[in-house]
## 1
Amino acid sequence: MREVTIKIGLERLDTQERITVEALLDSRATGLVMSSEFARKKGFKLKKLERPMQVRNVDGSFNREGLIENTVEVNVYYKGHVERTEIDVIGKQKWGVILGMLWLARHNPEIDWKTGEVKITRCPEECGKQWRPVQGKSGWEKQKKEEAKEEAEKKKEEKEKRKKQKKGRIVEVRKIAEEWEIWDEEEEAAKSEVEAR
């Protein structure tokens, strides 16, 4: 059976350092999982869980690696989508990162099981479009500049829109004021006409 993997970007929140990693898509895994060895090697800051979680295997037996005692909080990037999430850290495993059912159900990717191609076309709106698959520090810096530029343009457009709305309201108020003046003039004319009779 074919294993489907994708290259994702992981950003450490404490240092904003970003790395690219091959992650396994696994519908048998409930959540998102990171190998403790991988977390240690890459210098991820561990966050201790208040209550450790027991891990069960697909067959219902307890996992020999023991309890999940830590998580790491990261930004996960994949083909234009980004999300901040916590990944459970568990003992040794073949894969550095596994994206399980929580991730698969949330993003609902299109998977071509013959080629292994994974497309994110049904992702929720809140994921945003913030990541492009560019590797290397200069690529990430370029991406950050592009994102800042896009954000500035978005703010400028919103400001213009508010300005037009405000201008539209001013024009509408002027029309109402003119109608009142006309009404006042017509009322005065009618009073004058009645008094003249």
Note: The mean pLDDT is 78.
## 2
Amino acid sequence: MKRNVLKTALAFFALCGIAAAKDYEADVIVYGGTSAGAVAAVQAHREGKTVILVAPDTQLGAMSSAGLGYTDAGKAFTIGGVSREFYHRIWKEYQKPDAWNYQKRSEWDSAGQGNKGIDDEHQLMWIFEPKVAEKVYEDWLKESGVKVFKGEFLDREKGVKKDGAKIKSISTLAGNTYKGKVFIDCTFEGDLMAAAACDYHVGREANSVYNEEYNGIQTGVLHHDHFFKKDISPYKIAGDPKSGVLKYVSEEDPGKKGEGDKKLQAYCFRMCLTSVKENQLPFEKPANYNADDYALWLRYYDAEGLNGIMIFSKMPNFKTDCNNRGAFSTDFIGGNYDYPEASYEKRKEIVQAHKDYQLGWYYFLLNDSRVLPKARETMSKWGLAKDEFEKTGGWPFNLYIREARRMIGEYVMTEADCKGARETPKSVGMGSYTLDSHNVQRYIKPDGFVQNEGDIGVHVKYPYKISYNSITPKRAQAENLLVPVACSSSHIAYGSIRMEPVFMLLGHSAATAAAISIDAGVAVQDVDYATLKAKLLKDGQIVEMTPEMKKLVDDQYLKRVVAKKKTGEADAQKKTAQ
């Protein structure tokens, strides 16, 4: 009887296209198909370990293959090891003639963020199309022989089995179980880390927690240009609070400067748009579209006369990596607060809300009669790229999760580490990007006008070390888990760490540490740092600043100062002449 029931069940699963649950086992289990996840899997395999990559994602590489092709490289000379190899592989792809199907390589303006988009001298490429990045990750993992299981979501309620502080296995909602010796959580959300009962934080810590300046609520602090420079009413009838508040403006008290909260910097889709008409797909009207939702943008544009509506960073083949610009743009401010702790279904709803907001805004710009011709003309040049994200109609696979959970591990990276104000122990890589946070909330000031809060951009002069202990949980909570993405960091320090090249280099270091942990039979917290450092250096990882690097930074800084002075003098002469 039992045998007949089993046969019936298996037949039902086969009919429905559902595979029977299976058990898998490897030395290293990587959870998360992000750029860090792909690199960690490749490096663990190179260390001679059996590896399984379990990914809830349907495509590999997360943001590097989901539109963020204009790499936030910071000081690119700090990017080494397998992370650097990724950008070399991108360079190799663009050596192929068929990679330039809409544009000649010689025609492309390849300026990057402080570096060359194409660096032929070092055989690196820092700017690229999403589909090229995805191909690199897919080919890389196939070459490595890593087993990859896509569309596998961790059972966050009961899918992590532990023996004391040691994770024995993880199970997915599909019923599959993955047993391993060391686990690496490479998700933006830190889902495995949280399900393993490790400490973590969501939102901004108060400045007092880690003795920081830019961590907590930042009311009154206006960095960059992502704030309202003119007095703009947030009410449906301008100046009349009784008329109600416009959409995308919060009526909540923003809190006091320096205090902590549970709110997050804004997410958006990093759109890959194209100006090539034959390669364009149109911006369709969302089902729940309401033109009046964008009334605040109209007032903003009318009041400030903006020169642009979003950042269009050039990528090959007349494509662009789009990002937020100004006080009202692609960032859906306030739309993500529930995301880190939300169920998978709720996360889908939040992602869809972000799509509706962004797609609705594009449609509004192109079709609403109230939009001035200049703005419509800017937007009318662009369309979704037919040859990108083909399974989702040209829309990116992934929402840009700039920040979600952050582990509270053995060591917490803070503003002091990024500024070089304290000695960071056990470096396994370097960061160098600006202390960067997008806006967190849009509120009504006491004077009755609208303002954004949370956008921070503080320059980091020198590269800084990232501690090995910031990717290890507290020993008593998980002794065989490494967390290179949702790592142990304050909000503002994470604003610099959270760049794709850094995630990859931390994934590399985590995989190397995992192999040493397995070979030595010790907890990840007990990995001998001298052994780890020697191996990382051998593999091209950069873990500390050399005198040559410091001189390079100082020389670059001096050039900027001289250039700024010349610009100022030229402007002064122009005013005098007028």
Note: The chain has a mean pLDDT of 93.
## 3
Amino acid sequence: MKKFSLWIVSLLSGVIIITAASPLFAADIVPVGGSAVNAYADPAQPINTLYDKIYTVITYVAGALALIFITYNGIQYISSGGDAGKAKTARANIINTIIGIAIIGAAYFIIRLAETIGNTVFNRVV
């Protein structure tokens, strides 16, 4: 189990690094016969794009892990064989996973609300 956890952490770290670094190392767009065009007119746009990518990766990873946890604990619940302690533990883990999914969903709306309020206060259009 320890090796599996280390493998998962390594995989997730690699995905986050690759996904987050791609906009940072992107070159300016240079049309044929023209000069470089800055794709970001707003100075905060690259940071917002980076945050969006990081949040997207974290959300996908959390969703995948939640699916794995629910499946694993569902199997534990089914195979508890009448043992009330195992069934109670598996059921509690399933409920905790569902609560975690709800928190991730609420975080998305809180981030978007803060972004909308911030853009309204500073008169920026997204």
Note: Residues 1 and 101 are 24 Å apart (CA to CA).
## 4
Amino acid sequence: MSLYFKTIRYKNILSTGNAFTEISLNRNPSTIIIGDNGAGKSTILDAIAFVLYGKPFRKINKPQLINSINQRDLLVEIEFTNGSSEFLIRRGIKPAIFEIIQNGQLINQTAAIKDYQGYLEKTILKMNFKSFTQIIVLGSATFVPFMQLPAAGRREVIEDLLDLQIFSIMNTILKDKISQNKIDLKDIEYQIELVEQKLQLIQKHKIELLTNQNELIASKKDQISQYRTKIQNDEYAITNLKIKLNTMLNSISNNNQLKEKLNKYNDLKNKLETKKKTLLKTVDFFHEYDNCPTCQQQIDDFFKTSIIEKKTVQKNEIESGIIELNSKLVELEEIIEYQSTVLMNINEYNMSIKDLENNIQYSQMFISQIENEIADMEKKVDIMQDKEDEIKKLIKTNEINRKSRVELEEQTKLFRSAAEMLKDGGIKAQIIKQYVPIINKLVNHYLQQFGFFVQFELDETFNEKIKSRFRDEFSYDSFSEGEKKRIDLSLMLTWRAVAKLRNSVSTNLLIMDEVFDSSMDTEGVENLLALFQSVTKDDNLFVISHNNNMADKFFKTIQFEKQGNFSRII
């Protein structure tokens, strides 16, 4: 599968205005995109990620993509080919737009948007967002290099590259089949048991027809009488329970009022406690001070004494009120606790009533069944031959059912074997095992092209081992940022090569965001450009950079600038 990107156009995304910014993605072998900070040179990354995957490339919220000045009409369109088919993907915000147009025809959006997106990723792009960031884009501050992904993330990328998703799909389908197999097996067991029961009933009925019919009928009528007596007893028990229920419900009819009253008493108690504290502070004040602390005037002893006595009397009255309130609170709490016990008993009574009603229903069902049996026995026709024929049919049916059960049990064994093969340690592990040496060979080849002479190895669980020329072992994190960048670039080129080798994902587009601006030295830049000229002849390389001095090394230069509040190409 080959994705050949041709054109991207976008408007009202981030700092881009209402006029379309259009960039050809296949015209030049190498293009450098330059501009000051905030000029809009990295917007192309968010535009491609949004139109293909419905989310920004950078770590921003999706609503933040829309231009903050125009606040509507965000629209991104991308054109590419996939084999012999021409595709146009159109996606927008305010209004929301998501269209997939194949060879000029809109693919019907009968499913939910999520399924429509799944169709785009699985059927057309054959590449999820994580693989997109590993194969097409490298170097952004928000990009997570392969070596910094957890083991599960590394596995997801490699399985996507090796087109192993089919095994995950097969595993999902197999799980459904296993589930259906269990249902079918359970169903056939039920059918066998049901036929056996029917056989037993028919044979039993056949014997009953040969015995004294009147005795059987009398016996069954006696069973009905017993069930009806049981029904009467159960109905009587239900009536008594309902009477008790009504009595209990009446006894707790004021439950809510009591709770409200309890809350009011507690509020009143809190207010009295607060007032008591205020009075105590006043009494303590007149005991402590002979002069007013504010105006320094002497406080009259008679006045002081009268105030203390008055406040003390008030305090004593409040304390008496609190004691009385506490008594009432205890009384109310005891009543409410009792009513809680009553409520529990009510629930138990309701459950008992439900059980009795179920018993009545079962008894009525059994009565109906027995009455039908009596009606059959009372028929004065010879049905013996019919019973013999029915027995033969049932025996034949069960022979077929048992054969089906054997087939389903064999199918169960087959499904179990298939499930073992589709686990991570099964077929996928074997395929990955075949490709690990190829991946390691390619990575080391590209590392040498970058002048970084180490021995890089990924094992089958995607853990790295890196040895220097002196055979010292290192991890990825032990290298400098420039060395890490060389490893990231080598891995990216490896993924692209493996994807082409597997024919799972092949694309002309490669974007590097500020790769040359931080940790890559001059030699690394020259090696990288030389490598792309020799290895990626059919690819279209886009480099986003602050460094204007490298423009002469590229076939085309695109420069962005901020004019007013909007970005534009100069």
Note: The mean pLDDT is 82.
